[in-house]
Amino acid sequence: MTPDEMERHFPNLASAGYAVTSEQAASYNCLAWALGDTQHWWEPINYPFGYYWPRRAPRDNTVQAWTVVFQLYGFELCDTADLEPDYEKVAIYALPDGTPGHAALQLADGTWTSKLGRDEDISHRTLSALEGDEYGTVVRFLRRFRATAAGPS
Q: What is the mean pLDDT of residues 73-100?
């Protein structure tokens, strides 16, 4: 996707600040990217190009099902997107009808990283950068202990 196309799809992106961090790749999506998987497209329903979904997660395309997926991988619910150095955070976006639209992962420096469908990965300074008609608004936050964080002494 060209920068102009990206900014048309996400009108808040340019003013929020972003950088493209990878080339287009159709092998994985935002949910996979937020979980560190660049080999599978994660969806609760079968699409013609294949998919992956954990067996223990509900086969529903709902915010709750996505939440269960993240919880299966060590995430817990939390209240805010505020940076907590010992945790990595995920934000789930939902469309007005409640369907999940996107997941973004917070990096150690507080910026966010997102996979834009079959297009590029980007880093963006704010979650609002991707809010709008494409992905909806952020409705849920989760966190898990960052593997590189110092443990309790």
A: 96
- CB 113 within 8 Å of CB 122: yes
Is residue 152's pLDDT more than 50?
Answer: no
Strands 112-115 vs 100-106: parallel, antiparallel or unpaired: antiparallel
Q: Pick from 10, 39, 46, 8: which is nearest to 122 by CA? A: 10
The residue written with tokens 């309790």 in the block is 152
In which residue are the tokens 């997102």 written? 114
Q: Kind and range of the H or E element at 8?
A: helix 3-9
Give the Cα separation of 51 and 12 in Å (integer): 30
Give the mean model confidence (pLDDT) for residues 5-13.
Answer: 88
Q: Rounded CA gap, 126 and 135, in Å?
A: 14
Please give the Cα distance from 60 to 1 (Å, whole number): 29
